[in-house]
Automatic annotation (TrEMBL):
This is Uncharacterized protein. One of its GO terms (biological process) is endoplasmic reticulum unfolded protein response. The lineage of its organism: Eukaryota, Metazoa, Ecdysozoa, Arthropoda, Hexapoda. It comes from the Eukaryota. It is a single-pass membrane protein.
């Protein structure tokens, strides 16, 4: 009587509706797989052609947003520009000092090697 309640080998099977969906999806891909490949290639080619236009459009949008921001906050823009100018001047003076030191070192090397 125990043999009738429990089978000798237990099998774990997925629910029937999941198995049927899986098999119908698998058969659909098997029958139409080349269409998916072709559609993917077509989409990729179109994406390559359209991508520069999308990038240009996004850059224009960003420029418009920044222009609107600058129009609303002219004092903030002015302080940013002044800070950038002072940073540029500082970097330029550092570069000039390094160039002078390098020129002096080259002059010394030339004097030592010429003797």
């Amino acid at each position: 009587m125990d043999a009738q309640i429990h089978p000798e080998v237990l099998e774990e099977r997925p629910p029937e509706f999941i198995a049927s969906w899986f098999h119908s999806g698998k058969s659909f891909v098997e029958q139409n797989g080349w269409f998916f490949v072709g559609a993917g290639l077509l989409f990729y080619c179109l994406w390559i052609k359209v991508q520069p236009y999308i990038k240009k459009f996004r850059e224009q949008q960003e420029e418009r947003r920044y222009a609107a921001f600058c129009h609303k906050n002219p004092d903030l823009v002015r302080t940013r520009q002044e800070a950038m100018e002072t940073a540029r001047q500082r970097l330029q003076t550092e570069h000039d000092e390094r160039a002078k030191l390098h020129a002096e070192k080259m002059k010394q090397v030339c004097n030592n090697s010429c003797m």
